[in-house]
Write a structure and sequence with these properties.
Length: about 210
């Protein structure tokens, strides 16, 4: 099993982890980490474009038995073992696009509100074996933990991020708070480091996804 040790910005997956996921699911995968009320903190979709287009255009999301299983369960299961009605034959349609075998994996965090992470993984050659299901479960839990919201942002940093979220410029934030632009930059710098964000806008987006602002 891959040793997952994620010391990287929260918005990115390490190359070795992305490579391992591609090895486990060569036909593609959908990865959703910490689903919030509207959006996840992180999402990656490597499914074939043909399937992705069909999936969206035909509105399969609300009928997908793999996603239905993920929202109601934790752990890992092969698509072929999912006991959920599939009246629109979503999995059969997936097979026509090369996604003949698949696995659904889901985990639910603690806290209030509890956030769920899940994934749907596919391959064309054979079923996923037990070890692979266990590894996918472990990787998903590691990613869920990695994207845990930081708890050490200061009130001043959160205030600055909230203003960035509302579209204020650096000078406007400084004037509103009665501080220098350098002070605002320092607050945003601290927030970026704690969130693992690329810039202030990204930090504000992440803080919003985490429900911090």
């Amino acid at each position: 099993m891959l040793d997952v040790n994620l010391h990287n910005p929260r918005g990115l997956l390490p190359d070795r982890l992305a490579d391992r996921l591609a090895e486990l699911s060569p036909s593609g995968y959908l990865l959703v980490i910490r689903m919030g009320f509207f959006f996840p903190v992180y999402e990656q979709n490597t499914m074939p474009e043909k399937w992705a287009d069909r999936y969206v255009s035909r509105g399969y999301m609300v009928s997908d038995p793999a996603l239905a299983w993920c929202y109601a369960n934790t752990g890992a299961i092969r698509w072929s073992e999912i006991d959920v009605d599939d009246p629109r034959e979503v999995l059969a349609q997936a097979a026509l696009c090369g996604l003949k075998h698949g696995a659904a994996v889901s985990c639910l965090g603690s806290g209030e509100p509890a956030q769920r992470s899940f994934g749907s993984f596919a391959r064309s050659d054979r079923e996923f074996n037990g070890d692979e299901l266990s590894e996918l479960s472990a990787l998903l839990v590691s990613l869920h933990d990695h994207f845990t919201p930081p708890t050490n942002l200061t009130p001043a940093e959160l205030e600055a991020l909230r203003m960035v979220k509302n579209g204020l410029l650096m000078k406007e934030i400084a004037n509103f708070l009665g501080v220098t632009e350098a002070a605002v930059k320092q607050r945003l710098k601290g927030a970026k480091l704690k969130l693992g964000a690329k810039n202030g806008t990204h930090a504000a987006t992440m803080a919003t996804s985490f429900g911090l602002i």
